[in-house]
Structures are given as structure tokens and as C-alpha cells.
Amino acid sequence: MKALFLFFHNHKPRTSRIALFWTLLILLACLIPGREVPDVQVPLADKWVHFVLFAAFSFLWICTFRRTGLKAGLIVGLLSVLFGYVVELLQGSGITEGRSYDLYDVLADGIGGLLGLAVFFLLRSYALKTP
Fold first, then answer.
1. pLDDT tens digits, residue range 59-112?
2. How many CA atoms within 13 Å lie on the side-chain side of 72?
3. Nearest to 68 by CA among 129, 4, 29, 123
4. What's the pTM value of the predicted model, to 2 decimals?
């Protein structure tokens, strides 16, 4: 885990490209027409997907900052919620057939974003304390 963290944290240009790719992937995945989304018989599967996507989103973006303190965490956390909200607005706007606005998806996005930040700060603390 430490090696993966250090890879993303120490290679900011590469991590920026990965974070941008991940952001575009989220946007494209969330705008797929509803009839093309697989129907999975797992309770709250949609919310878990949002949760994981946005945890990775915030983790990757915080790794692109030079200074990764509280201010960077707040910025990335707000961006995570804002991006999730915009995606849901796009789904509810009618541009994507079979998709709709879901406030609980925005909540899952925000919680996932916070989890990604928590994982980042925990791994950073661990990586800085161990040789």
C-alpha cells in the first residue's frame, strides 16, 4: 500500500493525467444510457459504485497537490461533491435516456470523496513515519 501511495504522491505529472482520465471515465460512465447499464441484483450497488468511483477521484486529485494539507483536502472534498452534483444534474437534464437525478448518488459521491481523502491522509502519515 505504501509503494502505491508513494507512486501516486511522488509522480505528480503522471498522477495528474491519471486523475484527469479517471474524471473523464466517471463522466462517461455516468452518462451511459440507462438501458445499457447492467442490472445487478446487489442491494445499493449503484451507491457502492458511486462511493468507490469518488473515493478514487479524491485520492488521485489530492495526490496532484504540492502541499497536501487541510486547504488542499477542503478543495478536493468540495470538488468531489460539486462534480458529483454536476453529474447528477446532467443525468436529470434529459440528455441521457433512462437516467435521472438522485440526491442519494450525490451523497454517495461526497462520502466516497471523504473516504478517499481519509485514506490519503492515513497513508501519508504512515509513509512519513516508516523508513
1. 999 999 999 889 999 999 999 999 999 999 998 888 888 788 889 999 999 999
2. 17
3. 123
4. 0.88
